[in-house]
Structure formats: C-alpha cells, structure tokens
C-alpha cells in the first residue's frame, strides 16, 4: 500500500472523539498515507495500541498497524492542521475546552457530529480556530473497541473553509469521499431529518433494514419528519438534501407500499444487516442519548414558533425511558404508530 506523498502526507489530521465515526474517517485517511492522530480514552486507547480494522459495505477491508497513526490524550492533537471533531453532541463543550488548551490558532476544526448547535458551541470555545460545519450521512457501526464497519454508501459533507480542500485532497488518496457543500447549514437540517430515525431504531430494537421493511415504523418516521418540515417552514429555513432524495419527498417515499418502497429507495437501502443507528450504539455502550439534539431540537424550534411537535416529543420521552432502563422496549411498529397517533391527537 502506498504511504502517500505531497499534500496528503503534509496535512496533519487529528480526530477528536475516537468513536465509530472518528475511527472510521481517521482509519480510512491513515490507511492511505495521511498523518492521523486520535485523541481517545480508556479502552479505546488500549485497543488502538493493537491496531485498527476498518471495513465497509461491499467487502472493503483494511487493517492498520499502530505505527500508521498516533493515539493518545488530547495533547496528541497539538500541531494538527485539521481536526475532525467527532464527539457526541452532549460532550461538545467539555471536549472543545480540552482542545482549546493544545490547538494552534487558525487550525481548522470540522464538526462531523449529529444534531444542530454544535458548531455554535465550538466557535464560542475555539474563537481562534476556523470552525467548519460538516456531517456524515452514512451509517458506521463499531464492531469492537478497535474495529468499525461502514454499513452503507455516502460521502462526508463539509462546508467551505480555508482547509476544506486540503481534506478533500487527503481523502482523494483513499476510498473515503469528501464533498464540499456551500449550502452546508441547509444540509445540516436535511441531515437532521434523517437523524429523526435514530431514536426510533432504539425503540424498535431491530436492525435498520428490518425496521424499514415495516410500513408502520416508516409511517412514524414520516410523521416525525413532517413535523420538522412544518417547523422549518415557520422558521423560514429551507433544508437541503443530505442524500440523493429531496427532503420534501422523503415522507412520501416512506409511505409507499413496501414493494415499491424497496425499488424507489434502493440506493438508501444499500446497507447490510449489521446497520444500526448511532443512538442504538449509545444505548448498548451505556452512554447518554443524543435525542435532545435530534428530536429534541425539533421540539425546541417548534416551541420558539408557537407550534407543537407531539410525535417528536413522544419519541424523546420513549427514548429517555429506554436509556433509563438500559434496554430497548422493542416496540412493534403498530404499537409505536399507535403512540404517535395518540400523541398527535
């Protein structure tokens, strides 16, 4: 395998938050010649001392040796040119304050987190950095402390900035696709639309493919999405696509008969049976849920405009109970739909 030369080797890339997304993106870059440093803790660092396995949908596999990257605490990121900020949304402020003690002025910090509002927090905590919005609209599963699997196709989407093209160039040496979007703020709202399914995946307790086979689960998701679209209209916000399908069309596609849904959404359904939401991973790992930054963001925006978002509120409440009990309620689709319709009455 080529070690890479030029821009890819010269650009030092740091990963703040060595979870599934951080390990996948960092591993793909490191495996094809980029200089990558991971900031992690506990069992993740111990596991990275043995190597990192990265696989993806379609059979791709790469096994990295420890000498192909650096791993340590936040001080390992000192001197990086670009930092991919991949922590959970609830950890943004604490992690950003940690990072502020070691990062150089002018360093590009690219948020690849779920939810809305992380970039504002980063800019407050890292005023001398070039903070750039971004998102990862594909699913990555953590198989073990040092093994991650990308379960579907997609490109990392980032906003324009002084270092955006440097990341694109570094990634071009690998199968990792990075796309610069001038409309990234609108894309984040489009991605939030997709993330409304994260909590539903926790409540269903089944893999994503099986969940999308059930028209009742799809109907609940369509209802939650329509609430968000209505709130965005009231706020004068126009979401942009994070995938190939227009945000306005997604609820309609979800309501198609299952046989037709499989055909129309075949690109989005290109995932394997291991695909689960990041919220499911959080439940299994005993972490705090991100629902407050997803469905909860819909509720807060709705309240600010005098609108109700009862389906998203119901999802927040149900996910909160699941995390409190440390297990999925495994609600059948028809039961979840009953709860959604009852909440909306």
Write up what this structure looks like.
The protein is α/β, with parallel strands linked by helices. The protein has 2 domains: 7-182, Rossmann fold (3-Layer(aba) Sandwich); 187-344, Orthogonal Bundle (N-(1-d-carboxylethyl)-l-norvaline Dehydrogenase, domain 2). The protein has helices spanning 7-10, 20-30, 42-48, 92-100, 118-125, 164-171, 184-195, 197-204, 208-212, 215-235, 250-254, 258-264, 278-285, 295-304, 310-325, 333-344, and strands at residues 12-16, 35-39, 52-56, 60-64, 70-72, 82-85, 108-111, 130-132, 134-135, 140-144, 147-150, 156-158, 178-180. The strands form 3 sheets. Strands 5-2-1-6-7-8 form a 6-stranded parallel sheet, sandwiched between helices. Helix 8 packs across helix 15 (310-325) and helix 14 (295-304) runs antiparallel to helix 15.
Which tags fit this structure?
345 residues; alpha/beta; Rossmann fold; N-(1-d-carboxylethyl)-l-norvaline Dehydrogenase, domain 2; six-stranded parallel beta sheet; four-stranded mixed beta sheet; 16 helices; 13 strands; 15% strand; disordered N terminus
């Amino acid at each position: 395998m080529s070690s890479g030369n030029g821009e890819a080797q010269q650009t030092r890339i740091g990963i703040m938050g060595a979870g599934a997304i951080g390990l996948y993106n960092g591993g793909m870059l490191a495996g094809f010649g980029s200089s990558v440093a991971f900031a992690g803790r506990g069992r993740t660092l111990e596991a990275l001392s043995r190597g990192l396995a990265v696989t993806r949908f379609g059979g791709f596999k790469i096994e990295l040796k420890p000498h192909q990257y650096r791993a340590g605490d936040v001080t390992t990121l000192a001197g990086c040119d670009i930092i991919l900020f991949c922590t959970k949304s609830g950890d943004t402020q604490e992690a950003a304050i940690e990072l502020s003690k070691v990062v150089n002025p002018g360093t590009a910090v690219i948020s690849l987190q779920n939810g809305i509002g992380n970039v504002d927090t980063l800019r407050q905590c890292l005023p001398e950095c070039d903070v750039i919005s971004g998102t990862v609209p594909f699913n990555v599963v953590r198989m073990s402390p040092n093994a991650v699997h990308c379960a579907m196709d997609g490109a990392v989407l980032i906003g324009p900035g002084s270092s955006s093209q440097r990341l694109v160039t570094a990634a071009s040496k690998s199968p990792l696709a990075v796309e610069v979007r001038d409309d990234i703020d609108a894309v984040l709202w489009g991605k939030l639309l997709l993330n409304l399914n994260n909590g539903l995946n926790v409540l269903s307790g089944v893999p994503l493919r099986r969940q999308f086979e059930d028209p009742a689960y799809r109907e609940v998701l369509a209802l939650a999405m329509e609430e968000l679209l209505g709130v965005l209209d009231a706020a004068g916000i126009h979401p942009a696509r994070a995938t190939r399908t227009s945000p306005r069309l997604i609820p309609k596609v979800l309501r198609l008969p299952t046989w037709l849904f499989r055909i129309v959404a075949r690109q989005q359904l290109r995932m394997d049976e291991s695909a689960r939401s990041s919220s499911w991973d959080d439940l299994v790992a005993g972490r705090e849920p991100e629902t407050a930054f997803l469905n909860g963001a819909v509720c807060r925006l709705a309240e600010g405009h005098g609108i109700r978002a009862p389906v998203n509120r119901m999802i927040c409440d149900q996910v909160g109970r699941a995390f409190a009990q440390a297990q999925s309620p495994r609600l059948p689709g028809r039961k979840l739909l009953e709860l959604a319709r009852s909440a909306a009455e």
